[in-house]
Design a protein that fits this description.
It contains 2 helices and 6 strands; from the N terminus they run αββββαββ.
């Protein structure tokens, strides 16, 4: 028999945590791949794990100016769960767009990074792993550890 030492207990704990994390990460990757397959998109994530997909119609002329802190963006936003796209938690359509001041307040890491790619008249699909969104927290209809999808169009960019 071997003796249980604090170092051994710590090592076993780290291994178990890594195994659980790997399983949770794999589950999220499976959800993302399933969602991407259902909408027929093939793409790779950014280094952060965020997916930012340009969905702009090729005939649309888009702006060139990236958002800067304090800029006002007029956005349509539809946000839903990748695992269940029928669970919509934000829907700001063309008839009632949302006014958004970029980086004026703390934002989800997914929004901070994803919105940096938006330009006037551009449409993005942003797919966020849970660690760039709400993580293990439950927020309204959003369960803990949820992969989120944001369909965003910038109607206007005020500098």
């Amino acid at each position: 028999m071997f003796k249980k030492t604090p170092t051994l207990v710590l090592l076993i704990s780290v291994i178990l945590i890594q195994a659980c994390t790997s399983e949770a990460e794999q589950k999220e990757l499976d959800i993302i791949q399933s969602y991407l397959g259902s909408v027929k998109i093939e793409t790779d994530p950014l280094p952060s794990g965020l997916y930012v997909i340009d969905m702009t119609d090729t005939l649309t002329e888009v702006g060139t100016q990236e958002p800067a802190p304090g800029d006002t963006l007029i956005l349509t936003v539809k946000a839903y769960l990748a695992a269940n796209p029928n669970t919509i938690f934000v829907d700001k359509p063309l008839t009632a767009p949302d006014t958004f001041i970029y980086n004026a307040a703390p934002m989800l890491p997914a929004w901070e990074e994803g919105i940096s790619y938006i330009r006037e008249h551009k449409t993005l699909k942003i797919i966020s792993p849970s660690d760039l969104a709400y993580g293990a927290m439950r927020v309204g209809v959003i369960p803990p550890n949820s992969v989120l999808v944001f369909d965003i169009t910038c109607l206007e960019h005020r500098y």
